Amino acid sequence: MNFPLIRQQPWYPGQMGVPGSDVSRGLRTQPNGIVLFVDGNHPNATTTADGTDPNNPLSTITAAMAKLVAFHALSEVQAEGSTIVIAPGTYTDSIAIDRTSYPPDCSIIGCGNSKFDVVWVPAAGDALSIDQSGWLIDGIHFQPAADGAGVKLTWNAGAGAEDTIIQNCFFDGRWGTGLYGVEFEGAPANCTIQDCRFAEFDTAQPCITITATPTASPYQTHILRNTFQEAVEYITIEAGGFNASIIAGNHFVQATGDLGATTTYINLGTGSLGYNQVVGNYFDGDYSNTGGYTAETNGNDNWVGNFAADVAEAEVGDNGITVAEPAA
């Protein structure tokens, strides 16, 4: 495997002990950190490989994470900024990134000829649970298990998965088999979900959800330029709500009914603050609370400037532009 496409490349040059690392192939994105390569299909791949050479990669994501934890134990500062590069293939790992064992500001990058080449499908539980700050997840095709999320972001008592970026990923509900796409548990702040695709999640199995708010609600979340289609519930809440967040440039498509009709496009819940900006999106279906669009209950959200197909509503102009929050 030659790792034909590495998003935000490159990281390989300049590692100690790697033959040919003095060859100029571009600039690193971080002054610190190591790069670990995972390729379950490579003939040289093992769980005990060094992993810093793409020709001698690790065979599982779990093995790469164990290497990163060991490096972090040796040098907390130098471990920051490390990257896990995953080659095309199917991976069944279930990973929990905690604040004690793992460094902040690291990346998990899927490489290949499209964003769908790296398939992460755990047998059970969350594919990836993050309780550390500043991680970047890019280019992964998540197929969540029946009892877990593709990516779960946690935060409680002032610490957790703040500043996470999830981009260029496909959250595939597998026609109702997967539980959640992205799950917020608690209130990680300043998280970004952008340029992703969500599809095929069933009733009570939403694409993006908040399941618990022990201290607060997700704050300054950015949900940008994503596509939501063929699911019953898109962005919803089981606890709390979104605060001071931006939902912009997304495309919400009414399901064709293979799983069921879309019942929830956006429900921002009952958080303590509100002030969410929901602008510049395309809204399919019935632009109303009954149709599945619900602003935060404090009444201070801004929903002006979306395009909605439902021009019959008083909150939608004749040109299809929303002029107010959705109403009953």
**In percent, how much strand structure appears in the residues?**
25-35%
Biggest sheet overview? 9 strands, parallel
H and E order: EHHEEEEEEEEEEEEEEEEEEEEEEEEEE
Helix content: under 10%
In whole angstroms, the N-to-C terminal distance is 55 Å
Radius of gyration: 20 Å
Total beta strands? 27
- Gross morphology: globular
Strand order of the largest sheet: 1-2-5-8-12-15-18-21-24
Unreliable stretches: 1-30
Mean pLDDT level? 89
Number of alpha- plus pi-helical segments: 2
**Would you tell me the structural class of the helices and strands?**
mainly beta
Structure overview:
- The chain is mainly β.
- The protein has a domain at 121-308.
- Helices cover 5% and strands 28% of the residues.
- It has two helices and 27 strands.
- Strand 10 (149-156) and strand 11 form a beta hairpin.
- Mean pLDDT is 89; it is low at 1-30.
What is this structure, in a nutshell?
This protein has 328 residues and is mainly beta. Helix content is 5%, strand content 28%.
Question: What is the fold's blueprint, element by element?
Answer:
Blueprint: E1 35-38, H1 61-74, H2 76-79, E2 83-86, E3 89-91, E4 95-97, E5 107-110, E6 118-120, E7 128-130, E8 136-138, E9 141-142, E10 149-156, E11 159-160, E12 165-167, E13 170-172, E14 180-186, E15 192-194, E16 197-199, E17 208-212, E18 222-224, E19 227-229, E20 233-237, E21 246-248, E22 251-252, E23 264-267, E24 277-279, E25 282-283, E26 293-294, E27 307-308
Parallel strand pairs: 1-2, 2-5, 3-6, 4-7, 5-8, 6-9, 7-10, 8-12, 9-13, 10-14, 12-15, 13-16, 14-17, 15-18, 16-19, 17-20, 18-21, 19-22, 20-23, 21-24, 22-25, 23-26, 25-27
Antiparallel strand pairs: 10-11
